[in-house]
Amino acid sequence: MMSFPKNFLWGGATAANQLEGAYDVDGRGPSIDDIAPGGKDRMKIIKSPDFDWQPNPKYTYPNHEGIDFYHHHKEDIALFAEMGFKAYRFSISWSRIFPRGDEEQPNEKGLTFYQNVIDECLKYNIEPVITISHYELPLYLAEHYGGWKNKQLIGFFKHYADTVIDRFGDQVKYWLTFNEINSAASFPFSSQGMIAKTGADDKRNVFQAWHNQFVGSAYAVKAAHEKNPDSQVGNMIVYATNYAYDANPVNQLAALKFDQEFNYYTTDVQVRGEYPAYSESLYKQYGFTGSDLDRTPEELALLKKYHVDFLSFSYYMSSVTEVTGKVSEKTAGNILGGLKNPFLKESEWGWQIDPVGLRVGLNRLYDRYQVPLFIVENGLGAADTVEPDGKINDDYRIDYLKSHVEAIQGAIDDGVPVMGYTPWGCIDLVSLSTGEMSKRYGFIYVDMDDQGRGTLARSKKKSFYWYKQVIASNGADLSSDHLDY
């Protein structure tokens, strides 16, 4: 197979709302994620028609402390540098910069924190890859404006994006606008700040919110290019390579429709700059038309002019489409679950493991869009065991990542231009789907449990040394049998 490009961006990825902690420190305001309860019922609770924006004393909120990256970032970035990171994808907490989200003046202490993080990365020649909005809409914008269905949020986001791009744009080359923007197809809470009580179950609201985010994204592309012509801005989706269960044409058509709505709709707009031909058919399924959405000619022109430069995505699993009732066994997954694929194994949390699906997905996406691709999340959530001697022998994680790196190499050999690979949760953090610390992804172990007990001490897992070797060899050495650990 072909080797990885010399400038390949090996690294790792995290999000502010899952690791920073310090949720009420130095002027930060509350975000929607601060009222997301911990535990396996997290998603069920949030989707309930009774859920409101108020914390409940019967729940725990692990995001409040995270792993206290706010006070440990120098130590953590030094560990990333020891692994040889070329890039570190992290996010800025909107409410750390604008506590309510609609202020005129930013919180300077928040800007100073992210300046310190960026400086620390650059000290080790690590490229910052910054997500502007990663599932942490300021709570005030959700409560008082109804979330992203309200067009006023376009202006608030533009001001926020202008602020951080103006402050950091000379140092930051890579930006992502909205994390997993398409996830609102099944879970509008995280990416759009909407719950059942504020219209999350009305698909017209979801599609209006997407349009508003597309416009906000276009403004961010404009700002980044004007600040630094060398900057590159990407969109970001959760991608699930989708298969029809069998050769039944009905299932094949249903698989196509799934791809259009979940995998392609938001990306068609952000990469191509215009709404796809199937849009009206999609809206019709939910009882409205494109004319029911508030989209001005000026906004449509903005989308066309300021589309993104590259496509980034998370990949954890594939999905299966079967609509005849032949298959009923379900499986879990990232944001959305699905039907069980009999050819795949599952993780401890029920996510189907499909490295070949990553190669398929990379080919499909590049065939469709013809822009560089960046895998900014991928990884295995697992319960790690600390041995009596302090070691964490996570060979299962190494096996998972190795198979996916091989899939990326295969896609490169197929002719797909892949920019980089930043596995998710390179240091243990709070899980999005369940709010647990016990569901660990990292190369670095953090001593903290689901009840918030622990020393926060950092230690290196076996996978730390494996990934260090992978980066040092630019993907040429994926073996693990000779690691000195």
UniProtKB/TrEMBL annotation:
Membrane listed as a keyword: no
Keyword Ribosomal protein belongs to the record: no
SUPFAM superfamilies: (Trans)glycosidases (SSF51445)
Molecular functions (GO terms): hydrolase activity, acting on glycosyl bonds
EC number(s) reported in the record: 3.2.1.-
Keywords noted in UniProt: Glycosidase, Hydrolase
A Pfam family reported for this protein in Swiss-Prot or TrEMBL: Glyco_hydro_1
Gene3D superfamilies linked to this entry: Glycosidases (3.20.20.80)
InterPro entries: GH, GH_1_N_CS, Glyco_hydro_1, Glyco_hydro_1_AS
Active site: 377
Major enzyme class: hydrolase
Source organism, top-level taxon: Bacteria
Annotated family: Belongs to the glycosyl hydrolase 1 family.
Record's protein name: Glycoside hydrolase family 1 protein
